[in-house]
């Protein structure tokens, strides 16, 4: 093992130490803002540097087998032996860089964005804890360690969504995220049980090595296991039907949305599927389910994003939609493409969210100055902001072009690779062509709603109000600096995996080969001719251009009314604005029946009736009745006592002597 | 003296004592009945001593000494109760009733 790879535990140590230090400052209510900033951001910088060293070490000494750093034995129990072990291979090193890199940038941005929040120390301690758990998830060398990180990021997500817990709606959004994640986690747990039962181990290396012997290809066992794993991924990565928590998660501070709910945590499901690529490749039904759910989610979320007014909600649904793309990629067996899109998406979506954060920050300040209670996140209150915020507007446009897939930007290459991989499977079954078509339509919608967001936010007339306009200004460098870094990455991020038709080597594809080659044997050999690839690239460009131009021509920002004057929406627009009423449907079909059963059966009958009635009060009443019976003997009359005493003496005499009357 | 009639008399005296304790209300009378029971036992000790050796007579002295001490303590308690409650009827002395 190269020396630097052995340092990988340090990557975990720094954020954990940062969490403890900042947590202590928060609990003790120390006034140490500079110290909090230094610790919080410093931990991430150190962590990122170590991650770079690990990556360099791994690149310098490429190995076929992953490096496993076993820290200590965790759960030895009979046949089950679980070690707290970290696994460094091409996939986890790549994720390590993305997670620590993007987190570092967002930590810096948070210094500006959260600077005036009274919970500054608490915020940074949670953020550091989140990075720690995310790294545990990425580095875990077996399913249980991964699950610890999996649960940990869910916890941090809950803590940060409900960061402003004084607001009940925000606190409820946190609970919603946590509960929906837990539903998915059940699937992950079941999958772990089934894997252990079938293979007898939970370590990644062993499971993936023994899987071909333990399972029949396409058999029931492997299909059930992978479907259960995918249920976990659905919860964590916000896919249909467990996606509704992610848009609500926008209640948290915007940098949190950028970090957790766009760039890192929600991609955990994609990472997990890519990690377990052997298992998924052996179960074609599960893989197709993954791809289909991804495609449907992508389209569905994109339609909702078309009509949202909250700038963060648009981005939230866009995230759900892009995650759908990633699942489509890993579902059709293009694991490297899925990870590629995960990486580029982390860059441009973090940039979009931070840009939105910058806009919200500016608007919030303006409204704060004029004591207005207008909604700072509503796009109907924005407009023409490029005049005041030229840097933010430029960076946001770069991110928009990247997500839309304009040639040259990172999103173009990653999205195209997923679509091409799906198209290539089309000769097996026409269903893959359908998935591809869904992906293309989604790309069109993506171009449309992203352009809409940009037009309504940065172009046209300003709708925030006369007085407010004087207080609008560009964010400080501590916020625009991170935007610049991410903007550069959003442009050049595609270079890591240029397709073969362009003079590119597909570096990421080759880099991940030691991880993905395990599944290669179970996937059909697919190859697209260069001409087909060119046609697909051209088609994707056309779709992106169509979306942007269409939005530009159709939308009239000049006619838009501010939020307080906006007329009621009608027809399909209203349905989209209300997100197809999915929340209401879930409420009626699931939440209310559960609440009804909980209140009327579980609480009133079982808890109050049986447990309290028979158990708690029943035993107390029994003891009281026996006591009452016993107390009848205590008459207080001497005669009674003596009588009983004599009676007892006589009985004793009879017993001892056997004397007969 | 014959053993049988002595034990018979002892049994009769003891039963009278028990009956008195059970059915009389006046604490002094109950007290006397207890003495009666003690003396009934003494009588049977004497009767057995005549047959089996003198150690029984020693026990009788022992019992008489204890009975004297008990009489002193018992009467003192009764006086205390009387001062407290103006009665020594045992039916009235029932503070410990459950």
Descriptors for this entry?
heterodimer, A: 661 residues, mainly alpha, two-stranded antiparallel sheet, globular, B: 98 residues, Helix Hairpins
Question: What topology does this entry show?
Answer:
The complex is a heterodimer of chains A (661) and B (98).
Chain A: H1 3-6, H2 8-27, H3 33-60, E1 67-77, E2 80-88, H4 90-113, H5 120-139, H6 143-161, H7 168-199, H8 204-214, H9 220-236, H10 245-248, H11 254-263, H12 268-275, H13 277-281, H14 284-305, H15 311-331, H16 335-369, H17 390-404, H18 410-424, H19 430-458, H20 466-469, H21 477-492, H22 507-511, H23 513-520, H24 530-554, H25 571-577, H26 582-631, H27 638-657
Antiparallel strand pairs in A: 1-2
Helix pairs in contact in A: 2-3, 2-5, 3-4, 3-5, 4-5, 4-11, 4-16, 4-21, 5-6, 6-7, 6-11, 7-9, 9-12, 9-14, 11-16, 12-16, 14-15, 14-19, 15-16, 15-18, 15-19, 16-17, 16-18, 16-21, 17-19, 17-21, 18-19, 18-24, 19-24
Chain B: H1 3-23, H2 27-52, H3 55-85
Helix pairs in contact in B: 1-2, 2-3
